[in-house]
């Protein structure tokens, strides 16, 4: 993605935010649709159980609503939501740890129907091989690929804000990470055979 | 960005995406919570969710929300007619007005807690809902919970 496209993506989010502020539900819906997959990954990346992660994402949006007037630029809204999600997730983790002695966190974990952060969906041999090699990637590569995989039309401005990286570096980093994983997979006979 | 990907790349990304996607109702839950017009409200955090003891044949679970000014605990009890009853407690106890927001076009339900902070909403349909606790005096913020699936 060129820097000009990144600026366009920022402008697009900015327009959505402006219209959402004016009460346009469709714009708000679009904003939520674009940003939620990234916020979800941020919350899950902090090790939260599925239900806690969903709640943290929601809390971040509610906080945004309260502070809408403080958000001046579209780039800020993304960074602001991501920072808030990360902070809320951290607080949630701290509280869970604090609650361990009285068994509260243990009960909470026990009733959580979602998969734990460390569990993977393995449907076939290729999935198994994929996750084996995926775990060999750097943490940045893993996080980045999980986000671009999740977002139907990745918004590099959003992803750049999530990683605190310049817009221009997301495309090349993504390509490098994907190429690395792809090379490992193509070299693995199990991936080729199944 | 999909333009420079071949089938192998797309297969790899699709497999990654299938693992741990956001819950299908996440957008809906966020939008329902955001539909609330009150921007000054204090947001309560989900503190704990546990299964609760219930009468024979009833299923129930308890959810606790913490806000700076107040804690709200609710027990959601399944009724035989596919509706639910919501038993709630406010701490510190106060006879406050409690509102249960439901997706449009359903009207919000409004009850007043008793002196011990207890309140009940009965015959509530399954689906999204959000609690609002109205302040005892004007000038203090409302407390809102995130939206929850009853």
Task: Please give a structural write-up.
- The complex is a heterodimer of chains A (194) and B (150).
- Chain A is an all-alpha fold and 194 residues long.
- Chain A has one domain (3-193).
- Helices cover 76% and strands 0% of the residues of chain A.
- In chain A, helix 1 crosses helix 2 (25-45), helix 2 (25-45) packs antiparallel against helix 7 and helix 3 crosses helix 4 (74-99).
- By secondary structure, chain B is mainly beta.
- Chain B has 2 helices and 11 strands.
- The radius of gyration of chain B is 19 Å and the shape is elongated.
- Chain B starts with 6 loop residues before the first helix and ends with a strand.
- Chains A and B meet through helix 2, helix 3, helix 4, helix 5 and helix 6 of A and helix 1, helix 2 and strand 2 of B.
Provide tags for this entry:
heterodimer; A: 194 residues; mainly alpha; 76% helix; globular; B: 150 residues; mainly beta; 6-stranded mixed sheet; 5-stranded antiparallel sheet; 2 helices; 11 strands; 14% helix
What's the structural blueprint in terms of helices and strands?
The complex is a heterodimer of chains A (194) and B (150).
Chain A: H1 3-21, H2 25-45, H3 50-66, H4 74-99, H5 104-111, H6 125-134, H7 139-150, H8 156-163, H9 167-187, H10 189-193
Helix pairs in contact in A: 1-2, 2-3, 2-4, 2-7, 3-4, 4-8, 7-9, 8-9
Chain B: H1 7-18, H2 26-34, E1 42-43, E2 45-51, E3 60-66, E4 71-78, E5 83-91, E6 97-101, E7 109-112, E8 118-125, E9 128-133, E10 143-144, E11 148-149
């Amino acid at each position: 993605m060129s820097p000009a496209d990144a600026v366009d993506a920022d402008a697009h989010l900015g327009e959505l935010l402006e219209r959402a502020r004016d009460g346009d539900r469709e714009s708000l819906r679009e904003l939520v649709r674009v940003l939620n997959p990234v916020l979800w990954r941020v919350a899950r990346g902090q090790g939260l159980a599925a239900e806690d992660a969903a709640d943290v994402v929601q809390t971040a949006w509610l906080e945004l609503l309260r502070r809408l007037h403080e958000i001046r630029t579209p780039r800020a809204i993304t960074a602001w939501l991501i920072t808030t999600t990360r902070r809320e997730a951290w607080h949630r983790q701290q509280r869970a740890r604090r609650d361990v002695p009285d068994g509260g966190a243990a009960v909470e974990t026990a009733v959580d129907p979602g998969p734990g952060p460390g569990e993977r969906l393995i449907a076939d041999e290729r999935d198994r091989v994929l996750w084996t090699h995926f775990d060999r990637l750097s943490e940045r590569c893993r996080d980045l690929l999980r986000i671009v995989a999740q977002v139907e039309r990745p918004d590099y401005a959003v992803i750049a804000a999530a990683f605190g990286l310049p817009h221009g570096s997301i495309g090349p980093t993504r390509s490098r990470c994907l190429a690395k994983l792809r090379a490992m997979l193509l070299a693995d006979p199990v991936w080729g055979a199944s | 960005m999909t333009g420079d990907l071949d089938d192998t790349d797309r297969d790899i990304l699709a497999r990654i995406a299938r693992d741990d996607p956001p819950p299908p109702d996440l957008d809906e839950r966020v939008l329902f919570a955001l539909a609330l017009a009150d921007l000054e409200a204090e947001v309560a955090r989900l503190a704990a969710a546990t299964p609760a003891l219930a009468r024979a044949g009833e299923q129930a679970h308890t959810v606790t929300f913490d806000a700076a000014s107040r804690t709200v605990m609710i027990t959601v009890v399944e009724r035989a007619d596919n509706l639910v009853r919501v038993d709630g407690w406010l701490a510190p106890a106060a006879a406050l007005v409690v509102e249960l927001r439901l997706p449009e076009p359903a009207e919000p339900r409004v009850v007043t807690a008793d002196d011990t902070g207890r309140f009940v909403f009965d015959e509530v349909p399954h689906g999204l809902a959000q609690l609002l606790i109205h302040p005892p005096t004007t000038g203090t913020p409302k407390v809102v919970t995130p939206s929850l699936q009853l």
